[in-house]
Design goal:
Helix content: 10-25%
Shape: elongated
Order of helices and strands: HHEEHEE
Strand order of the largest sheet: 1-2
Strand content: under 5%
Structural class: little secondary structure
Distance between the termini: 94 Å
Radius of gyration: 37 Å
Largest sheet: 2 strands, antiparallel
Length: 167
């Protein structure tokens, strides 16, 4: 019975020890409290105007060179480092895109225009080398191959680069 009396006394002390007051300053609890008026924000006007947003570069330059190309050699490209539409690899920046961006310079004699010759596109590597080894082969072991990372004709899986092609 003494145990119950001790527990009861402990509970009474705990209840009265908690004041149940909210955790705020007394000024807020006072009924005569008036909040400070809200001051309007001061804005400063700048005499300089921000530069206009840059216009994005086109996906292909005037010579038809892609800004980003597939590292696996798939055809096409894009204007940013997005996934390749053929194999899904992230497109890599193509430095050839910028090589002729400023090729049209002012000629020494404005009446005689300087002819601009577009660069010759690189010739793609053949699908098989001289030894008959495929450049891209199926990871599932299917026979055959291709010159780029396309779908396997037998199983539909994406062909993987074959390092033995370059040996």
């Amino acid at each position: 019975m003494n145990l119950y009396k001790c527990i009861f006394c402990f509970m009474i002390v705990c209840l009265f020890a908690c004041d149940n007051k909210p955790n705020r300053p007394d000024a807020i609890l006072d009924e005569t409290y008036e909040p400070a008026p809200i001051q309007p924000a001061t804005t400063t006007t700048s005499t300089t105007t921000p530069p206009p947003p840059g216009t994005p570069e086109p996906a292909q330059n005037a010579d038809g060179v892609w800004h980003y190309t597939c590292p696996n050699g798939c055809e096409g490209g894009g204007g940013s480092a997005a996934p390749c539409s053929v194999c899904g690899a992230t497109l890599a920046h193509n430095t050839l895109y910028h090589n002729n961006a400023n090729a049209a310079t002012t000629p020494a004699n404005p009446t005689t225009p300087t002819p601009i010759t577009p660069p010759t596109p690189p010739t793609p590597e053949p699908a098989q080398n001289a030894a008959g080894v495929w450049h891209y082969t199926c990871g599932n072991g299917c026979a055959g191959g291709a010159g780029s990372a396309v779908a396997c004709a037998t199983c539909g899986g994406t062909l993987a680069h074959n390092p033995a092609y370059h040996q």
